[in-house]
Amino acid sequence: MKSRSLLALFALLAVSTVSLAHAGDPDTGTEREVLRPDEQASAAKPVPEYLCEDPGPDVFVKESRLAEKYDPNHPVAFQLNEQLKFSIPRPYTYPRTFWSHLGCDPKTDLFGFAFWMPDLRAPQHDMWGRPDFRIREDGRPKPGKDEFLVIIPTVEVVTDEEDAPSSNKAPWRQFKNNMTYLVGKRYMLKLEYGGLIHVAPVKEKIGGEVYVNFEDGRDEIMIDCDYPYQCFFDLYLSDHGLGMRGTFPKDALSHWREIKTGLTP
Description:
By secondary structure, this protein is α+β, with helices and mostly antiparallel strands. 15% of the residues lie in helices and 27% in strands. It has helices at 6-10, 37-42, 59-67, 171-181, 256-263, and strands at residues 22-24, 31-33, 75-79, 85-89, 111-117, 148-157, 187-192, 196-201, 210-213, 219-224, 230-237, 242-249. The strands form three sheets. It has an eight-stranded antiparallel beta sheet with strand order 5-6-12-11-10-9-8-7, with helices on both faces. It has a two-stranded antiparallel sheet with strand order 1-2. A hairpin with a 4-residue loop joins strand 11 and strand 12 (242-249). The longest helix is centred in the middle third of the chain and has 11 residues, at 171-181. The protein is globular and about 60 Å long. The chain starts with 5 loop residues before the first helix and ends with a helix.
């Protein structure tokens, strides 16, 4: 991948025509050029009409037929508001967007996507219902310890204004609530993994694996690893009012900064 940020790849915060750089081919893992929508329209190959309809009971048959007509990396549009307009190559979407929905209204309250670390490529398969962060893909070697999937089911508008419905999703507010839970109890604050503040109760086991990073005053991240095999994180881009909630394998916590860098401008 030439870009080290998925925001640069997706141009997630662009309000004009989106220009996608290089997306990983989900079948070969190699880079391939993805054209802008206007470039696609002017290409020699006719652009098929995109549908917006219920695929019906024969969903797999219909989707297979449509897949033969469309560019596998066709960008899918999502719009959270007038400023936050997204255009994401279909292989990244989570759950993967139906071919029969490519022509639907992009306005939505939330959407999701998934990607591999460390190269930020798209998953080969739809990861919906596949709880395996190191799934073996066709034509690729078995993933090593430093290779894993990051799954982000929720990207949405988040504001930290006091009376806003989404205000409790800002990591700093979650951190404050977590500290309120610890009032009257002994706990430690430890700096770990190259910049994470670890909030560690001395006696209680529950709530003992919460980490936060607020170092730049703009992009906030809170990570909760109180689960057997995975960590959940909330990333808040305060300059854009954008929140992401995602998950990655627990043994990849040391890669938190690389994940954050791969998601931020």
